[in-house]
Amino acid sequence: MENVCSINNLAACLVQSGMNPDLANLLTALGGVVLVATVPLVTVIFLIWVERKVAARVQDRIGPNRVGPFGLLQSVADAVKMITKEDITPQGADKFIYNLAPIIAFASVVLIWAIVPFTPLHIGADLSIGILYFVAVASIGTVKIMIAGWSSNNKYALLGAFRTIAQLLSYEVPLVLSLLIPVMISGTMSMQEMTRQQGGMWFFFMAPIAAILFFIANLAETGRAPFDLLEAESEIIAGYNIEYSGFKWGMFMAGEFMHAFTACLLTAVVFLGGWWGPGVEQIPVLGFIYLGLKTGVVYLFALVLRSTVPRVRIDQLMALNWKWLVPVSVANVILTAFLLKLIQWLNLAPQDGTLGAALPQTIILFAGNLVLGLVLFNLIRNIGRSQRLADEAVPVRGEHEETSPVHAVGD
């Protein structure tokens, strides 16, 4: 394995071929930057076609089918159209910040890909604080929305930015709390090491509630239905990006599509074993296929939700977060910490990455999640029953009112 040139040892291979070490390190770094920046952008062009096709099938339509085979070039045509459209900057706008916001929107998502482990050998940077890096970089997207709305010198853009910031900051709380669970189970924040520890059992089976909370919070963070209030055309025109057009608006949309896919990618890495699969230790390149399949399943589920579930109101959005997701996340963290301590006391912690070693811990953690889920389900049922009884107790308007006699004309 040491003789195979991969991304991780490419600089050493170039040095062995006679290249200057400094130049080899520079070329390796530049190659990694170009790869990380190019692959997500090309992926976005394809994902736009996929989203249109899935939405069309769900809604009994055809979708793109004219430009190119199967309509594959429709996204390319749209990209060319946005690039060639007129670039308008409003009067009174802060031009530097106004033009900086779309760049931040795109870069904040691309930077996340630097820590994604694609195979046992292929990763941009295996940081020991990978989870913390993801949370920090993903939060940069909040800044671009605020500066885009403020610098546009438009009251509707500013109001849209305020509402969007409230949504993003609120849902970061359950997002971070749900990420604490796999960190506690694995004992590391490195995504590569976290993936390796799922060789015996995926963290999804140890912490299904955390996985569901992470997925829901990511839907809100990326502005996907039913939480797509980042762009509410029926209420505040288009939100924070109303004054952007052409290529700048296209960068916002590219960042949104890429962020949605990246969230599904991270869900697969953190909870579904990432690149783990049969034969990956012998043929590491298979990790790309396994990770792509797992990400595709999560992504298609998110697309079906987007095409079927209606948009919620802003008060419902915030109530769901602070009244349900945050308390459940806190309870889940406390419960998991207690169960992990119990597992450690019973000496049932897995000693290796096999299924048999991870099974006792999985059973205990899954049972704890099952109990918490049953308590939550019973609580929701009781609240729903009380609300239904309260609605039934309210008399229908006019039900007990006396009907006045009908008088003939002329009485």
- Outline type: globular
Largest beta sheet, briefly?
A: none
Class by alpha and beta content? mainly alpha
Count of individual beta strands? 0
Beta-strand content = under 5%
Low-confidence stretches: none
> What count of structural domains?
1
Helix content: 55-70%
Instruction: Give the SSE order as H and E letters.
Output: HHHHHHHHHHHHHHH
Radius of gyration: 26 Å
Estimate the mean pLDDT confidence.
Answer: 85
Distance between the termini: 105 Å
Per DSSP, the total helix count is 15
Describe the structure.
With 411 residues, the protein is mainly alpha-helical. It has one domain (88-387). The protein is built from 15 helices and no strands. The longest helix is centred in the last third of the chain and has 39 residues, at 355-393. It is globular, with a radius of gyration of 26 Å.
List the main descriptive attributes of the protein structure presented here:
single chain, 15 helices
Task: Compose a concise summary of this entry.
The chain is mainly α. It has helices spanning 10-16, 21-58, 74-84, 95-110, 130-138, 140-151, 155-186, 191-196, 203-206, 208-221, 233-236, 246-271, 286-308, 314-345, 355-393.
Task: Describe how the helices and strands are arranged.
Layout: H1 10-16, H2 21-58, H3 74-84, H4 95-110, H5 130-138, H6 140-151, H7 155-186, H8 191-196, H9 203-206, H10 208-221, H11 233-236, H12 246-271, H13 286-308, H14 314-345, H15 355-393
